[in-house]
């Protein structure tokens, strides 16, 4: 099973959005034509390789799955960027960042802050 699951349909997104009511999730918006996205995706994968705290993670290809990306922007009330990463808990965006700020360290920090605030 993939550590980072790709969302390709609105139904999948709605299920993940609902699932965030039970446990936090990471959501990454990715473009296959962007070098900054390639770097950010490497950081997300590196986070999962080294992190003992397990969190469900999802990725949306913003080119191939534009309707899903648009729906995420609507549901979260956060304008689209790519790359962009969200930490979502109980359908609330507890952390969001984009571009060069997506690093393994920043992801870990956001998740640990959520763990300590819960």
UniProtKB/TrEMBL annotation:
Name the SUPFAM superfamilies for this protein: Thioredoxin-like (SSF52833)
Organismal lineage: Bacteria, Bacillati, Bacillota, Bacilli, Bacillales
InterPro entries per UniProt:
BrxC, Thioredoxin-like_sf
The protein here is known as: Bacillithiol system redox-active protein YtxJ
Q: What highest taxon heads this organism's lineage?
A: Bacteria
Q: NCBIfam families, from UniProt?
A: B_thiol_YtxJ
Quick one: which gene encodes this? Answer: ytxJ
């Amino acid at each position: 099973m993939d550590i980072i699951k790709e969302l390709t349909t609105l139904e999948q997104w709605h299920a993940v959005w609902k699932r965030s009511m039970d446990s936090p999730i990471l959501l990454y918006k990715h473009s296959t034509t962007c070098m900054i996205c390639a770097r950010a995706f490497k950081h997300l994968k590196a986070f999962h390789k080294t992190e003992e705290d397990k969190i469900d993670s999802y990725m949306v290809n913003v080119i191939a799955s534009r309707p899903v990306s648009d729906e995420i922007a609507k549901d979260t009330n956060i304008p689209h960027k790519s790359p962009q990463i969200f930490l979502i808990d109980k359908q609330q965006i507890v952390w969001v960042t984009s571009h060069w700020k997506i690093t393994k360290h920043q992801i870990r920090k956001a998740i640990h802050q959520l763990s300590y605030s819960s």
